[in-house]
C-alpha cells in the first residue's frame, strides 16, 4: 500500500476533492446498481399520482441525460469502462447509432459531469471531455416497469400492490380495499407489462365454497380461465375459475413429493387437480387420488394422462370420508395382505383441505377390526393440513388434530411444520403423524373429547374445546 502511494505521489498530482467525491460515488454505485426510482429524475411525472383511468400519454416526460459520443470503432473498448454507469430502462437501448457515431446514454444520478467518469481510462482510449455532453431524452409509458408505473400512480402513504400470483396467462390479485378504485388501471398496467399475461382477475370473496376454488372478478383482459402452467417442472392444465390451485403451495408440494420414493404408496384424500398425486405417480409411486369436485376430478385425469402416469394412479370422485372408509381401507388392506414378498415401502396419506381436513381424521379410528390387521403392518404416515388462528398457532393445530382424533399424539407425532402465513394471525401447518394399531382398531367413543393425557378435567376440556376452532 505504502509503495503504491509513493509511486502514485511521485508520478501524479493528487486528484482534486470533487474528483475524489465523484470516484467515491462511482465506487459506491459499482457495489449497488442505481435504482431509477431512487430519484425523481427518472421516475414518471408527478402528475400521474392518483390516476384512475390509465392514460399512457400522460407518462411522457423529458430529461437531460449525460452521454458520450464515440466513433463506431471505439465502442467495444469504451463500453466496459462505463458499463455500470449505463442508463438502464425498459425498452431503451443505452447504446445507439447517431450520425455515423455511437451515442452511449449514461445514468444521470451517478454521472453529473465529465469528472464523474473514469476519465484516465477513457482518455487512454482517446475519449475526452469533448465527447461528453448532456441532451434531452423523451421518456414514455414504455420505459417503466409495472412496478415503477404503479408506484408512481398509487397512493403514496398507503401500502402498494405487494404481491400477486401468476397462473399461466392469468394474474391473480387480492386487492386491499384502498386499491379497489384503481383496480382497472392496475389490471391494464399488469397486462401491458407482464410477458404472456392475457387475463387479470381479483379475488372476489373468501374461498368458503366446498370446492375451494377462488371466486374471481375479471378486471382486465379475456375471460379465459383455462390455463397451462408448470409446478416444480410438472405441466398442469385446468380451469382456474372452477378448481383450486394455489402457486404459493408449490414448495409444500415439492417437500412432500421429495420424501416419496418409487414404489411408495400415496393416498391423496383432497387431491385437487393433482399437485401431490401427479408428480408422485410420475415418480412411480402407487397413488390413489380423490377429489369431490367433478371438475377437479376431470382435470386430475387429464393431468395424469398428460404426464403419462396413468399406470400408477387410480382416481376417485367422492367425499373424502367415503374415500377413506372404502377405497383407502380396501386398498391398504390388500397391500398389507400381499406385501410380504414385496420390497419395503412407505405409505403416505395427504389431506390438504386446511379449513376442515382435521374433521375427517376420526374416519381412521376403528377403520379395521383387530383381526383384520396383520401382525406388523407398515403403518401410514398422515400429513394433515390445518389453519389455526390466534397466538400459539402451532400448539392450536396439535390440539385440533388430537381432539378430532380423540387421542393424544406421542411418539407417533413426526412433526408440525409451518407452511405459510395466510392472514394476520392465521397460519397454515402440516401435522405429520403415524397411524397406530390402537388408532386403527379402536373406534372413537366420544366425539370431540380431548385427550386425557393432558391432565385436564372434563370441565377444562370443554373450555379448551371452545378455544380450539377450525377457521
Ligand atoms: C385446498 S384444495 C387442495 C388441492 C390440492 N391437494 C393442493 O394441494 O393444491 C382442497 C381440495 O379438496 C376438495 N374437497 C373439498 N371438500 C371435499 C370433500 N368433502 N371430499 C373430497 N374432496 C373435497 C376441493 O375440491 C379441493 O380440490
**Strand composition percent:** 15-25%
Give the mean pLDDT: 87
Under CATH at level 1, the class of the largest domain stands as Alpha Beta
- Poorly predicted runs are 1-33, 446-471
| Helical run tally | 13
Question: Can you describe what's shown?
Answer:
This protein is an alpha/beta fold and 471 residues long. It has three domains: 2-143, no CATH class; 154-224, 2-Layer Sandwich (GMP Synthetase, Chain A, domain 3); 252-467, Vaccinia Virus protein VP39 (Rossmann fold), CATH 3.40.50. The protein contains 13 helices and 17 strands. β12, α9 (294-306) and β13 form a beta-alpha-beta unit. Bound molecules: S-adenosylmethionine. Residues 210-212, 244, 246, 249, 270-272, 275-276, 290-293, 296, 319-320, 352-353 line the site of S-adenosylmethionine. S-adenosylmethionine binds at residues 210-212, 244, 246, 249, 270-272, 275-276, 290-293, 296, 319-320, 352-353.
Write the layout of secondary structure elements.
Elements: H1 2-11, H2 17-31, E1 61-71, H3 75-82, E2 95-98, E3 101-105, H4 119-124, E4 132-139, H5 146-153, E5 165-167, E6 170-173, H6 183-193, E7 199-205, E8 215-221, E9 226-231, E10 234-239, H7 250-259, E11 265-268, H8 277-282, E12 286-290, H9 294-306, E13 313-316, H10 320-338, E14 347-351, E15 381-389, H11 393-405, E16 413-423, E17 426-434, H12 437-441, H13 458-467
Parallel strand pairs: 6-7, 11-12, 11-14, 12-13, 14-15
Antiparallel strand pairs: 1-3, 1-4, 2-3, 5-6, 7-8, 9-10, 15-17, 16-17
S-adenosylmethionine is lined by residues 210-212, 244, 246, 249, 270-272, 275-276, 290-293, 296, 319-320, 352-353.
